[in-house]
Each structure stands twice: as C-alpha cells, then as structure tokens.
Design goal:
This protein has about 100 residues and is mainly β. It is about 0% helix and about 45% strand.
Length: about 100
C-alpha cells in the first residue's frame, strides 16, 4: 500500500495511519523520512519527539533513532524501528509500506 501526502515544514512531524500502521512522517532539515511511530524502548509514540540532525528523540526517555535507518543510539534499547521508503515528486510524497 502507498499513501500520497503533501510535504511538511522543516523539523516537524506528522502522525499518519496507513493500512492500520502508525507511521510518523518527519522532515529533518528539508529531507523527508517515514518511520514507525513507536519507540522500541518504552512502546510510546515518537510524534512529540524533537528532530535534531538526522535523529528523532523519544519524548519519554530521550532515546535517539536514526531517521534513515531506524537504528537507536545509546544503551536503553538495541531494537531498531521500522523505516519506510519515500518518493518525492514536486510538493507530494509517496510513502510505500509494501513488502515490509
């Protein structure tokens, strides 16, 4: 399944539900990413987390996740979060959750 969405402002997030999956659309310094909207440490939404560089910080305990790979930084968790490919065309983004 895919979802088409307008781009969002820099260093902001937008929670989405696509085919029953909680996805977080993120814009980090002009680059858009789509990630699982759930911290693998405490099972809490990431949507209120701050974007710094290429990472989002969990609002609960500050675990940082790489927006490109989903890999966590630090010692609180070693479990990565899911990332989803995005295709940009003009002002529109297509988020692809097929085969994931």
């Amino acid at each position: 399944m895919t979802k088409t969405q307008k781009k969002i402002p820099e260093n902001t997030t937008l929670p989405l539900i696509i085919d029953g999956r909680k996805i977080l659309l993120c814009n980090a310094n002009g680059t858009h990413y789509a990630i699982e909207n759930n911290c693998s440490h405490q099972d809490t939404p990431l949507e209120r987390g701050r974007i710094r560089g290429n990472f989002i910080c969990c609002p609960l305990h500050g675990v940082r996740f790489n927006l490109e790979t989903g890999e966590p930084m630090g010692q609180l968790t070693k479990k990565a979060i899911q990332t989803y490919p995005i295709e940009e065309k003009g002002d529109l983004l297509t988020i692809n959750i097929l085969n994931i």
